Amino acid sequence: MSGSQRMGGGQPVFILNEDAERTQGKDARTTNITAGKAIAESVRTTLGPKGMDKMLVSDSGDVVITNDGATILDEMDIEHPAAQMLVEVAESQEEAVGDGTTSAAILAGQLLSEAEDFIEDEIHPTTIVEGFSQARDIALDALDEEVLDVDLDDELLTKVARSSMTGKGTGGITAEALAESIVHAVRQVESEGTVHDENIQIVTQAGESSSATEVVDGVVIDEEPLREDMPRLVEDATVAVVDTDLDTREAEADVEYNVQSASQLDTAIEAEQQELRQYADALADAGVDVAFVTGDVADMTAGFLANAGILAFDSLSSDDADAITRTTGASRLATVEDIEAADLGSAESLSVERFGDDELLFVSGGAEAEAVTLFVRAGTAHVLDELERAVNDGVDAVLAAAESGGVVPGAGCTEVRIANAVRSAAASIEGREQLAVEAFADALDSIPRTIAENTGMDPIDALVEVRAANESGRGGILAESERGTVEDPVEHGVLDPVAVKREVLSSATEAATMIVRIDDVISAE
DSSP assignment of 210-232, as one string? Predict the structure, then answer.
C-alpha cells in the first residue's frame, strides 16, 4: 500500500497523505537526471561567440530576446524540482562571479548524462559521486596550473571584457570600444589595489545609437527638477543632501483653529509662508547651489528655492541619496538649520538633460569621485536590454579577473587541458571511481565540443584538432571568420577569469552530485 507500512499485527499505519505521489530508486534518478539534462539542453546552443538567441515570451506577451544563459534560466517557468536545482546553481554562479552560467549548466547536464549511463550499468550512485568529487579536485588543481603569468594591465582586462561579450548583441558599438569603457569604469573605482564595485552604476536610455554609450565620472539619476524655472546646469556646485520634509510641520495633536477675521487668516498664512521661506533661506545662506531632499518639498518652498537660483529635487530614494553623498562628499542632513560647511559636498557639474519624455540628472566630477556610471544607449528597448546584459557580463568578468588575480586561455582551450590532466590522474585511482573520474574528463570536453558545434564546425573533428594543438602548444576554437578555426586563444586575446572557471567546476559538480544522490521523490498533491 503506497504511503503506508504494515506493523506486526497486519494493521497498516499511514505515513504519507493518501494523495501524495512517491517515486523511488532508479525511476526517481532517471526522472531527475532527465529534467537536469533538459535544462542544459535549453541553453546549449547559446554558448560561444556564435551562440544562438532565444526568444522568451511571458504569459502577458512580454518578449525577451537574449543568448545570456542566466537570463534564459531566470525567465523560464520551471516547475520540476530537480531542474529548479540546476537553475539555482546557475543563479549562484551569477551571484558569485557574474559569468559562466551557461558553461555551468552544460557541464552539469553532461555529468548527469555520464551518471545516467553508470546507473544503467548498475554502478552505485555513491561511487559516481565519489569519483566526480575526486575529479573536481584534480581539475581545480590543474586549473591553477593554467593561470597565465601576465600583468593585469588595462590592455589585458580589455581583452577579458571583450571575450565575455563576444557573441552578445552590442548594437552599433564594437565589443572592443565597449570593453575599453568598462575597464575605464573599473579603474575609476579602484583604490590601493581594491575595486569598490558597488560604486559602478549602469544606467540605460533608449533613443540613440549604442555608439553613444559613454562613461560618466559620477552618477546618473532618473530625477527631474521640482520646477521648470530652476537652473538645468550648475557648475562648481555646492551640494546639500537633506533627510527631512521641507513642508509645514504638522501639529503632534489634533488642534482646531478658530479664525474670526480676515486679518487673523492673513497672519496664519503669513506664518506658514515664513516657515516655508526659512527652509529656502537656510539653504541659500549656507551657499547651497543644489539640494537633494529625500522627503517632500512644499510647492511654495520650491518657489522660494527657484527664486534663490537653487536647483532642487525631492522624494529622492535612499540609494540615490547614498550615490550623491559618495560622489560629492556631502553628509545627509536631518535638518536645514545650522548647516556647517563640512556638511556640504561639491561637484564640477550638475546638468539635467532631456531624452524624449524622460529627464536625467548627471552629476560629474564630484569632490569624492567614488562613483562612476556606464551610460548605455541603444535605439530600441530589445537591443538596449541585451546591451545592458552584455555590459554587466563585461563588468563582472573584469572584476572577477582583477579580484581573483588571474586569467586563463578561453575558447575551450582550458577545458581541454584540464580534461587531459584529469584523464592522466585517473590511472592512479583504484576501483570503479576511476570510471567516474574519466567520465568527468569526457564531460569537460562538452564545452569545446559545444562551442565548435555552434560555430558550424564538426564537433568531433574540432575536438580532435584542439586536443592535438594542446599537445604541442595551445589551441582553442575561435570564430573570427564565418566558421570556427583552431588557433591559440592567448595570441588572439581570448581570455577568461580563472575565478569563473573555478566556480563552473565547483557549481556544476555540486549540482550533478546532488541530483544523483536523490533516490526518493515524494510529492504532496
Answer: GGG-EEESEEEE----SSTTS-S
